[in-house]
Specification:
Layout lengths: L1 H4 L19 H12 L20 H9 L12 H17 L6 E5 L2 H16 L5 E5 L5 H9 L2 E5 L9 H6 L5 E7 L11 H11 L2 E5 L7 H6 L14 E6 L12 E5 L3 H4 L3 E2 L7 E2 L8 H39 L3 E2 L6 E5 L3 H10 L5 E2 L5 E4 L6 H17 L1
Parallel strand pairs: 2-3, 2-4, 4-5, 5-6
Antiparallel strand pairs: 1-7, 6-7, 8-9, 10-11, 11-13, 12-13
């Protein structure tokens, strides 16, 4: 037959990726450890570029204990489903409205896509647009392309927060949603969500808040005596919130959360799933790991508000210590909104290269400044060593 002779030009043949005979568990573990040795370690205190950190042991154990559970078919795992509901309710209460509904998802990207999906379905515009700050996370680019949304970017001011006046100027009849950021990725800056809330109410628009990082920081900063920042469901115009427990929530990756003020938004996302134990689904993923939900529940239950308050307090102490040290070295330092610190130097490229050569994992803002994220794995002694290295590196430039 012709198809037996047909071989498309783009097809290449290689040995099967799975070997014929398996290896012993000891050999497999050796291969895994060899790979892990090449990875950076949070425990070293030298990862200053990541918004993730070492998860709590109790959360890691919970994750492993629930590996086989699938919340895409929750009738088989009612206990795991209850853990998810309890975790979601706890996060919702932390964010100003215990009655908010949602799910534990894979992370901020999935949560942001889900929120804009709901906003689009609710508005039913022929050429939908969504307004985001210039500092919005790249997940909104993905969401716009996937959902057929035109992404309109509003300008930000010197403090890296969105100019509400520019947001208002760019609202059109095609606008289906406005996005505010509570702890942007580069600077940790928090948009004026209160003003955006009023704007959304005035124009009848959906307001989504991306608090992927700030959601587990801002509620505790207020309690620690830092200036209060309004950003959550306590503002009437906020329709949905993204928050990532796998960041400052200290749960294992992956663990995000999407919350809606009104459960009616979830109904807009429903699809029939008649062959499963639940007749309808409204999450983007079909198969969903119950391990993440169990781990988030474990972290929340183990730490409680008091525990998270201590975590945030320690991170802020190290952040402010680094700020003072960098200022004393003559660096230009942005005033931190939370545990993200950005500083600059006239020879920023050379300094960044020297710090990386000394083993520090740092990142850069789009302007080129050096950016540090002070997560729980970064201790004061790591900060002291970093400052010594900055001083030495600056001297030889």
């Amino acid at each position: 037959m012709w198809w037996r002779r047909y071989k498309p030009a783009f097809v290449t043949f290689s040995p099967p990726p799975v070997q014929e005979r398996g290896r012993s568990e000891e050999e497999v573990r050796s291969l895994l450890q060899e790979a892990k040795r090449r990875d950076l370690s949070y425990a070293s205190g030298r990862i200053l570029s990541s918004m993730c950190t070492s998860p709590l042991k109790v959360a890691s154990r919970a994750f492993c204990d629930f590996l086989e559970t699938n919340l895409g078919d929750p009738g088989l795992f009612p206990g795991t489903r209850e853990l998810e509901e309890r975790a979601v309710k706890a996060i919702a209460s932390l964010l100003g409205f215990a009655g908010a509904k949602g799910f534990i998802v894979s992370g901020g990207t999935e949560a942001n896509i889900t929120a804009l999906f709901a906003a689009r379905e609710a508005a039913k515009r022929s050429r939908p647009e969504v307004l985001v700050p210039e500092t919005a996370h790249f997940s909104f680019e993905k969401a716009a392309r996937m959902l057929g949304l035109r992404l309109i970017k509003a300008k930000v001011g010197e403090d890296s927060t969105v100019l509400v006046s520019d947001v208002e100027r760019k609202i059109t009849p095609s606008t289906v949603a406005v996005v505010g950021i509570a702890g942007n990725t580069e600077y940790g800056a928090v948009d004026d969500i209160a003003a955006l809330s009023e704007l959304a109410l005035e124009h009848g628009l959906y307001l989504h808040v991306d608090a992927a990082f700030g959601g587990f920081v801002l509620p505790f900063l207020k309690e620690l005596g830092f200036p209060a920042v309004e950003f959550d469901f306590s503002l009437r115009g906020v329709c949905s919130i993204t928050v990532d427990p796998h960041k400052m929530g200290l749960a294992p990756v992956p663990a995000g959360c999407i919350l809606f003020r009104d459960a009616g938004y979830l109904e807009l996302l429903q699809v029939e799933s008649p062959y499963l134990t639940q007749p309808r689904q409204c999450t983007l993923l079909g198969t969903r790991s119950g391990a993440s939900a169990a781990a988030v529940f474990a972290a929340l239950t183990f730490l409680g508000k008091e525990g998270y308050r201590r975590v945030v307090e320690r991170c802020m102490q190290v952040t402010l210590h680094l700020r003072e040290g960098l200022l004393s070295l003559g660096m230009r330092v942005h005033e931190p909104w939370m545990n993200i610190l950005v500083f600059d130097h006239p020879q920023r490229e050379a300094l960044a290269g020297e710090l990386r050569a000394r083993g520090w994992a740092i990142s850069r803002t789009r302007r080129g400044e050096i950016r540090l994220v002070i997560m729980p794995h970064v201790k004061k002694e790591h900060a002291e060593q970093f400052l010594r290295d900055v001083e030495e590196a600056a001297e030889v430039l």
